[in-house]
Amino acid sequence: MSSGAYLTHEGYEELRKKLEYLKTKKRRELSKAIKKARGHGDISENAEYDAAKEAQGLNEKRVAELEQRLSNAQMLDDTQIPKDEALLGATVLLKDLASGEEFQYMLVSELEADLAQGKVSVTSPVGKSLLGHKKNETVEINAPVGVLKYKILKISRTS
Fold first, then answer.
1. Model-level pTM?
2. How far apart are CA 72 and CA 66, in angstroms?
3. Of 11, 39, 113, 115, which has the highest C-beta tally within 10 A?
């Protein structure tokens, strides 16, 4: 992650909650699993113990990564961003000009990107194509299937 990456308030809270879970509940679960595996005797040939210790190490690595991300992240100040432009933190309602289908994406940083939740990174092909455009503009997105054309129907912000 580049230092100073921007996060929406929602994205920051999600990362903070995930970190809290890993540092509390997940650590306790892994500690219990290690204790249980130790109870099975010789740990030098105990696959359950090895697996539990490996899971603990992966959890600690994830904790360190999240702490790093949160310490370097900058909160997005929506009050300083134009509300009528497709910029970081905006939710954009689009209409596919070929199919007529409507859908929406929230433009977020790479840290928050989650297509299943409709959050696309501003560095992705879709995100890059939408950046800076306004309502009623048509945008073209180069995709593996060809050039897709969308009309921006609405731009909104959560704040």
1. 0.63
2. 10
3. 11
